[in-house]
Amino acid sequence: MKPQVLDSVAALREAVAGWRAEGSSVALVPTMGALHAGHMALVHAARAEAGRTVVSLFVNPTQFAPSEDFSSYPRSAADDLAQLAEAGVEAVFMPRVDTVYPPGFATTVRVGGVTAGLESAARPHFFAGVATVVTKLLLQCLPDAAYFGEKDYQQLATVRRLVADLDIPCRIEAVPTVRAADGLALSSRNAYLSTDERRVAPALFRVLSEMAAALARGGAATDEVVRGVAALEAAGFGHIDYLAVCDAGTLTPVTRVEGPARVLAAAWLGTTRLIDNVPVDPAG
Ligand code: PAF
Q1: Domains along the chain?
Q2: How far is the CA of 41 from the centre of ligand 1 (A)?
Q3: Residue 59 contacts residue 73 (beta carbons within 8 Å)
């Protein structure tokens, strides 16, 4: 069955109210479209747990800097809708930019703490844009749960923080990163990689995994970061925006792993910026 395509907040609220009246629970999967298996894992997790699932497709301009790829960001609405129909999603929310940001819009949600460093160093605008649009989507839909991928780990931490801080009555569910057979984390931006770059790209996950194993055995973060940077450069990566070992909850850097931690990186291959992260479990 084809999902209902909704383009206004009123239509979204009416659909959700109807499902609630039937006693159904509601899940929201926020996306920017260009759906791949990573997004579909979020959709399947939502479908498995909720009575009704809404997927939002909205390329959010406020999370792109003017120099970034907002206008060229991959858009494939027809293909996205076909995948969502196949997955049995009940509704797709596809608002226009001026529905989300009408003339006079003047509110920004800024989250502190977990947004410091990492992605923010290279993309200082990013989390305010994400936090603002996610807050709006959650308030527009008021789902029981919303689904986010661990691939964007700092984004996930930011969303958890804002939902707790703003008392938004919604559970945030994290879904593990989906990877290609060679380990590359699925991302819409992988489409930008040349054949040669695509061959190099899995080194990011390999290096992060090697670092995580060494850290779990008691290695010092500074030593592992130096080794990791050298390994990424040797593999063919260009500029490394960051390679860091952080507490899994607060995302503050740690020198040695004593509790749940995460190794996170952003690195360039040609003109494509890849991000990835892996858990470090000192007990594991
Ligand atoms: O992860 C994404 O695709 C986006 O940042 C999100 C959460 C849909 C907000 O625009």
Answers
A1: 4-175 (3.40.50.620), 188-278 (3.30.1300.10)
A2: 15
A3: yes
